[in-house]
Design goal:
Structural class: alpha+beta
Number of helices: 6
Distance between the termini: 25 Å
Largest sheet: 4 strands, mixed
Bound molecules: zinc ion
Strand content: 15-25%
Shape: globular
CATH class of the largest domain: Mainly Alpha
CATH architecture of the largest domain: Orthogonal Bundle
Helix content: 25-40%
Amino acid sequence: MKIMLPEHYFYSNKAGKAYVSKGKLYIEGNVNYERLIYDIVYFLKGKTTCYYCGNPLTSKKMTLDHKYPRFLGGISIPENLEPCCKKCNLNKLCMTEEQFMVWSSIGSIKEKDLFFQNCVMENTEVLKKKKFLIPSEWIEIYDVSRYFRDVPFKRINKRKYKKLEIYFEKWHQYSKPIIVSANGWVFEGNHIITHAKKINKHYVCAVVLENVIVKKNSQK
Ligand SMILES: [Zn+2]
C-alpha cells in the first residue's frame, strides 16, 4: 500500500534523516520508524483538536490513537493514527473507531460498560477467525525467508518475544502484520520474523509501504 504523505517534508535527528520527494518517503541513517511516522501524522493532521471529541489539544493532553487498535493488528501508519486527547484515548481502549463513536453517544455508565463488554467479545471473535481487523487491502502475504540474513535486527526483547509465542500458540497467527519498506527493510516485526524462522514458517502477513524507501542501513 502507499501511505499518506505530505508533499514537502523533512525530518532529522543526530543519526539520520528522512524526507519526501516526488511522493516517496526516503529514510537515511538510523531513524526510529514509529517516531518518524508520529511526526508525519502531526505534520499532516495538526496538533490542535482531538479527532474524537473535537476539544482543543494542549501539549500535555495530546496523544495519538490507533484507530484500529493495536490489539486487533492496528499498525502505525498515518492512515491508522489520529491526534486525540488523553481522555478519549484512554476511554477508547480496544474499541474500533465505529465502536467508540457508539460508546460515546451512550448516556448511562451501566449501558456504556455493557456495550464495551460486547465490543471486547465481538473483537475476540474476529481474532478467533484468524483475521486482523485492519482493511484486507493493506495486507499482503510476504515471503520473509530471504530477509532472515539481510536485516540487522534490533535486539530481541525476551518478555515481548515470550508474549508473542503465547499469542501464536493461542491464535495460530501473529497479532499484527510486519511492516516493510518498498525495498525490503523491516520496520516492525523482527520478533515475528525471528519466531517464523524458528518454526520454519516462510510466509507472514505484511504491510508493504510501497512509497517508503530506506536508502541505507537504518536499523541498528
Ligand atoms: Zn478527545
